[in-house]
Amino acid sequence: MAEPILATHGLTHDFGPFRALHGVSLEVAPGTMTGLIGPNGAGKSTLFNVLTGALRPTSGTVTLQGTDITGQPPDALFRAGLARSFQIPRPFARMTVLENVMLAPKAQIGERVWGAFLNPRAMAAQENAIRQKAMEVLEFVTLAKLADQAAGEISGGQMKLLELARVLMGDPTLILLDEPAAGVNPALTEVLIDKIETLNRTGTTFVIIEHDMDFVMQHCTPVIALGQGRVIFEGTPEQALADPVLLDAYLGAQAHG
Ligand SMILES: Nc1ncnc2c1ncn2[C@@H]1O[C@H](COP(=O)(O)OP(=O)(O)OP(=O)(O)O)[C@@H](O)[C@H]1O
What's the pTM value of the predicted model, to 2 decimals? Predict the structure, then answer.
Protein backbone atom coordinates (compact mmCIF):
# COMPACT_ATOMS: atom_id res chain seq x y z
CA MET A 1 0.00 0.00 0.00
CA ALA A 2 1.12 3.57 -0.65
CA GLU A 3 2.12 5.43 2.49
CA PRO A 4 -1.12 5.78 4.45
CA ILE A 5 -2.64 9.24 4.69
CA LEU A 6 -3.90 8.31 8.14
CA ALA A 7 -2.73 5.61 10.51
CA THR A 8 -3.52 4.69 14.08
CA HIS A 9 -1.41 2.50 16.28
CA GLY A 10 -2.69 0.82 19.40
CA LEU A 11 -5.41 3.40 19.94
CA THR A 12 -7.18 2.93 23.24
CA HIS A 13 -9.82 5.13 24.79
CA ASP A 14 -11.40 4.77 28.22
CA PHE A 15 -14.52 6.52 29.43
CA GLY A 16 -13.84 6.13 33.14
CA PRO A 17 -13.79 2.40 33.79
CA PHE A 18 -15.28 1.59 30.36
CA ARG A 19 -12.85 0.86 27.52
CA ALA A 20 -14.49 2.05 24.29
CA LEU A 21 -11.45 1.47 22.05
CA HIS A 22 -9.06 -1.45 22.59
CA GLY A 23 -5.77 -0.95 20.76
CA VAL A 24 -7.14 0.01 17.34
CA SER A 25 -4.48 -0.07 14.63
CA LEU A 26 -5.54 0.77 11.10
CA GLU A 27 -4.35 2.48 7.96
CA VAL A 28 -6.20 4.57 5.42
CA ALA A 29 -4.66 4.66 1.94
CA PRO A 30 -4.69 7.98 0.09
CA GLY A 31 -7.49 8.41 -2.43
CA THR A 32 -9.76 5.76 -0.93
CA MET A 33 -13.33 5.92 0.33
CA THR A 34 -12.94 3.77 3.39
CA GLY A 35 -16.20 2.57 4.95
CA LEU A 36 -16.20 2.30 8.75
CA ILE A 37 -18.94 -0.03 9.87
CA GLY A 38 -19.91 -1.92 13.00
CA PRO A 39 -22.90 -2.39 15.26
CA ASN A 40 -24.22 0.32 17.58
CA GLY A 41 -21.78 1.06 20.37
CA ALA A 42 -18.81 -0.48 18.50
CA GLY A 43 -16.74 2.66 18.97
CA LYS A 44 -16.99 4.33 15.54
CA SER A 45 -17.88 7.80 16.81
CA THR A 46 -15.33 7.52 19.60
CA LEU A 47 -12.70 6.67 16.99
CA PHE A 48 -13.71 9.72 14.90
CA ASN A 49 -13.55 11.87 18.01
CA VAL A 50 -10.06 10.65 18.80
CA LEU A 51 -8.91 11.02 15.17
CA THR A 52 -10.11 14.62 15.00
CA GLY A 53 -8.79 15.68 18.38
CA ALA A 54 -12.17 16.04 20.11
CA LEU A 55 -11.04 13.31 22.52
CA ARG A 56 -7.51 12.59 23.64
CA PRO A 57 -6.78 8.85 23.53
CA THR A 58 -5.83 7.05 26.72
CA SER A 59 -2.94 5.54 24.77
CA GLY A 60 -1.80 4.95 21.21
CA THR A 61 -0.97 7.26 18.34
CA VAL A 62 -2.56 8.85 15.30
CA THR A 63 -0.45 9.94 12.34
CA LEU A 64 -1.55 12.11 9.44
CA GLN A 65 0.72 11.87 6.39
CA GLY A 66 3.47 10.51 8.58
CA THR A 67 3.21 13.24 11.25
CA ASP A 68 2.16 12.34 14.77
CA ILE A 69 -1.01 14.35 15.44
CA THR A 70 -2.13 12.53 18.57
CA GLY A 71 -4.06 14.81 20.90
CA GLN A 72 -3.87 17.88 18.66
CA PRO A 73 -7.00 20.04 18.87
CA PRO A 74 -9.59 20.01 16.04
CA ASP A 75 -8.72 23.50 14.78
CA ALA A 76 -5.07 22.57 14.31
CA LEU A 77 -6.11 19.42 12.46
CA PHE A 78 -8.55 21.38 10.29
CA ARG A 79 -5.61 23.57 9.24
CA ALA A 80 -3.57 20.43 8.59
CA GLY A 81 -6.24 19.20 6.16
CA LEU A 82 -8.29 16.84 8.32
CA ALA A 83 -11.98 17.74 8.58
CA ARG A 84 -15.10 15.96 9.76
CA SER A 85 -18.85 16.23 9.47
CA PHE A 86 -21.25 15.33 12.23
CA GLN A 87 -24.07 12.80 12.21
CA ILE A 88 -26.43 15.60 13.20
CA PRO A 89 -25.35 18.92 11.74
CA ARG A 90 -25.55 21.90 14.08
CA PRO A 91 -25.47 25.11 12.08
CA PHE A 92 -26.14 28.47 13.71
CA ALA A 93 -29.85 28.55 12.98
CA ARG A 94 -30.37 32.32 12.89
CA MET A 95 -27.36 33.03 10.73
CA THR A 96 -27.62 32.71 6.98
CA VAL A 97 -26.31 29.74 5.07
CA LEU A 98 -23.50 31.91 3.68
CA GLU A 99 -22.56 33.26 7.12
CA ASN A 100 -22.39 29.73 8.47
CA VAL A 101 -19.96 28.75 5.73
CA MET A 102 -17.91 31.92 6.17
CA LEU A 103 -17.58 31.18 9.87
CA ALA A 104 -15.83 27.88 9.23
CA PRO A 105 -12.31 29.18 8.58
CA LYS A 106 -12.58 31.93 11.17
CA ALA A 107 -13.87 29.68 13.87
CA GLN A 108 -11.27 27.10 12.98
CA ILE A 109 -8.33 29.37 12.27
CA GLY A 110 -9.09 31.71 15.15
CA GLU A 111 -10.46 35.24 14.93
CA ARG A 112 -7.67 37.72 14.56
CA VAL A 113 -9.38 40.37 16.63
CA TRP A 114 -6.28 42.48 17.06
CA GLY A 115 -5.64 42.30 13.33
CA ALA A 116 -8.87 44.22 12.73
CA PHE A 117 -7.61 47.11 14.85
CA LEU A 118 -4.14 47.04 13.43
CA ASN A 119 -4.95 46.63 9.76
CA PRO A 120 -8.62 47.09 8.86
CA ARG A 121 -7.96 47.10 5.12
CA ALA A 122 -6.21 43.74 5.19
CA MET A 123 -9.05 42.46 7.35
CA ALA A 124 -11.66 43.61 4.81
CA ALA A 125 -9.70 41.98 2.00
CA GLN A 126 -9.56 38.75 3.96
CA GLU A 127 -13.31 38.95 4.61
CA ASN A 128 -13.95 39.38 0.89
CA ALA A 129 -11.73 36.45 0.01
CA ILE A 130 -13.55 34.27 2.54
CA ARG A 131 -16.95 35.40 1.19
CA GLN A 132 -15.90 34.59 -2.36
CA LYS A 133 -14.58 31.19 -1.39
CA ALA A 134 -17.74 30.48 0.62
CA MET A 135 -19.89 31.30 -2.41
CA GLU A 136 -17.79 29.01 -4.62
CA VAL A 137 -18.15 26.20 -2.11
CA LEU A 138 -21.93 26.81 -1.86
CA GLU A 139 -22.12 26.71 -5.64
CA PHE A 140 -20.34 23.35 -5.61
CA VAL A 141 -22.74 21.82 -3.07
CA THR A 142 -25.75 23.29 -4.96
CA LEU A 143 -26.79 25.62 -2.12
CA ALA A 144 -25.80 28.97 -3.66
CA LYS A 145 -29.43 29.94 -4.19
CA LEU A 146 -30.06 29.51 -0.45
CA ALA A 147 -27.04 31.64 0.57
CA ASP A 148 -29.18 34.34 2.24
CA GLN A 149 -31.66 32.01 3.91
CA ALA A 150 -31.48 31.39 7.65
CA ALA A 151 -29.70 28.09 8.21
CA GLY A 152 -32.43 27.01 10.63
CA GLU A 153 -34.97 27.04 7.81
CA ILE A 154 -33.32 24.64 5.38
CA SER A 155 -34.10 20.92 5.19
CA GLY A 156 -32.14 18.19 6.94
CA GLY A 157 -30.56 17.12 3.65
CA GLN A 158 -29.60 20.68 2.82
CA MET A 159 -28.01 20.94 6.28
CA LYS A 160 -25.80 17.98 5.38
CA LEU A 161 -24.75 19.78 2.21
CA LEU A 162 -24.10 22.90 4.29
CA GLU A 163 -21.97 20.81 6.61
CA LEU A 164 -19.99 19.57 3.60
CA ALA A 165 -19.57 23.19 2.46
CA ARG A 166 -18.18 24.16 5.87
CA VAL A 167 -15.79 21.22 5.77
CA LEU A 168 -14.58 22.23 2.29
CA MET A 169 -13.58 25.70 3.49
CA GLY A 170 -10.53 24.03 5.05
CA ASP A 171 -9.32 22.55 1.72
CA PRO A 172 -9.15 19.15 3.38
CA THR A 173 -7.12 16.25 2.05
CA LEU A 174 -8.98 13.84 4.34
CA ILE A 175 -12.66 14.09 5.24
CA LEU A 176 -14.35 11.99 7.89
CA LEU A 177 -18.11 11.71 7.36
CA ASP A 178 -20.46 10.46 10.05
CA GLU A 179 -23.50 8.85 8.43
CA PRO A 180 -23.76 11.27 5.51
CA ALA A 181 -26.89 9.69 4.05
CA ALA A 182 -28.90 9.23 7.26
CA GLY A 183 -32.10 11.26 7.31
CA VAL A 184 -31.54 12.73 3.86
CA ASN A 185 -34.20 12.45 1.17
CA PRO A 186 -33.19 10.33 -1.85
CA ALA A 187 -32.82 13.26 -4.27
CA LEU A 188 -30.44 15.12 -1.96
CA THR A 189 -28.62 11.90 -1.08
CA GLU A 190 -27.83 11.59 -4.77
CA VAL A 191 -26.46 15.14 -4.87
CA LEU A 192 -24.42 14.51 -1.73
CA ILE A 193 -22.97 11.27 -3.08
CA ASP A 194 -22.21 12.89 -6.41
CA LYS A 195 -20.27 15.65 -4.64
CA ILE A 196 -18.41 13.18 -2.44
CA GLU A 197 -17.44 11.12 -5.49
CA THR A 198 -16.34 14.20 -7.42
CA LEU A 199 -14.11 15.22 -4.52
CA ASN A 200 -12.78 11.68 -4.22
CA ARG A 201 -11.93 11.55 -7.95
CA THR A 202 -9.97 14.76 -7.58
CA GLY A 203 -7.87 13.36 -4.77
CA THR A 204 -9.74 13.81 -1.48
CA THR A 205 -9.64 10.78 0.78
CA PHE A 206 -12.76 9.85 2.76
CA VAL A 207 -13.50 7.74 5.80
CA ILE A 208 -17.25 7.23 6.08
CA ILE A 209 -19.23 5.84 8.99
CA GLU A 210 -22.35 4.34 7.49
CA HIS A 211 -24.97 1.86 8.66
CA ASP A 212 -26.59 1.58 5.24
CA MET A 213 -24.87 -1.46 3.69
CA ASP A 214 -26.22 -0.59 0.23
CA PHE A 215 -24.36 2.69 0.46
CA VAL A 216 -21.21 0.92 1.67
CA MET A 217 -21.44 -1.72 -1.08
CA GLN A 218 -21.78 0.89 -3.79
CA HIS A 219 -19.34 3.52 -2.67
CA CYS A 220 -16.78 2.25 -0.14
CA THR A 221 -13.57 0.29 -0.57
CA PRO A 222 -12.07 -0.92 1.62
CA VAL A 223 -14.37 -1.61 4.55
CA ILE A 224 -13.11 -1.64 8.14
CA ALA A 225 -15.40 -2.96 10.86
CA LEU A 226 -15.23 -2.28 14.56
CA GLY A 227 -16.82 -4.52 17.16
CA GLN A 228 -16.67 -3.72 20.87
CA GLY A 229 -13.83 -1.30 20.33
CA ARG A 230 -11.66 -3.56 18.20
CA VAL A 231 -10.99 -3.91 14.48
CA ILE A 232 -12.80 -7.15 13.64
CA PHE A 233 -12.71 -7.01 9.86
CA GLU A 234 -10.88 -5.38 6.96
CA GLY A 235 -11.63 -6.17 3.34
CA THR A 236 -13.86 -5.47 0.39
CA PRO A 237 -17.57 -4.75 0.86
CA GLU A 238 -18.38 -8.12 -0.72
CA GLN A 239 -16.15 -9.89 1.81
CA ALA A 240 -17.80 -7.88 4.59
CA LEU A 241 -21.24 -9.11 3.61
CA ALA A 242 -20.05 -12.73 3.66
CA ASP A 243 -17.96 -12.50 6.84
CA PRO A 244 -19.27 -14.68 9.68
CA VAL A 245 -17.42 -12.75 12.41
CA LEU A 246 -19.10 -9.58 11.27
CA LEU A 247 -22.50 -11.21 11.08
CA ASP A 248 -22.03 -12.49 14.64
CA ALA A 249 -21.02 -9.03 15.84
CA TYR A 250 -24.18 -7.49 14.39
CA LEU A 251 -26.45 -10.22 15.69
CA GLY A 252 -24.71 -10.16 19.08
CA ALA A 253 -25.12 -6.41 19.34
CA GLN A 254 -28.82 -6.75 18.52
CA ALA A 255 -29.26 -9.47 21.11
CA HIS A 256 -27.64 -7.23 23.72
CA GLY A 257 -29.73 -4.23 22.73
N1 LIG B 1 -19.07 10.19 26.76
C2 LIG B 1 -19.19 8.88 27.02
N3 LIG B 1 -19.15 8.40 28.28
C4 LIG B 1 -19.25 7.08 28.55
N5 LIG B 1 -19.41 6.13 27.59
C6 LIG B 1 -19.47 6.54 26.33
C7 LIG B 1 -19.36 7.93 25.95
N8 LIG B 1 -19.46 8.01 24.61
C9 LIG B 1 -19.62 6.76 24.16
N10 LIG B 1 -19.62 5.87 25.16
C11 LIG B 1 -19.73 4.41 25.07
O12 LIG B 1 -18.66 3.97 24.25
C13 LIG B 1 -19.10 2.92 23.38
C14 LIG B 1 -18.83 3.31 21.97
O15 LIG B 1 -19.71 4.35 21.59
P16 LIG B 1 -19.67 5.03 20.16
O17 LIG B 1 -20.66 6.14 20.17
O18 LIG B 1 -18.27 5.34 19.78
O19 LIG B 1 -20.21 3.83 19.24
P20 LIG B 1 -20.67 3.87 17.72
O21 LIG B 1 -20.05 2.71 17.06
O22 LIG B 1 -20.40 5.21 17.15
O23 LIG B 1 -22.23 3.64 17.87
P24 LIG B 1 -23.46 4.17 16.95
O25 LIG B 1 -23.40 3.38 15.69
O26 LIG B 1 -24.64 3.82 17.78
O27 LIG B 1 -23.27 5.64 16.75
C28 LIG B 1 -20.59 2.71 23.69
O29 LIG B 1 -20.71 1.63 24.58
C30 LIG B 1 -21.00 4.00 24.35
O31 LIG B 1 -22.05 3.77 25.27
Answer: 0.88
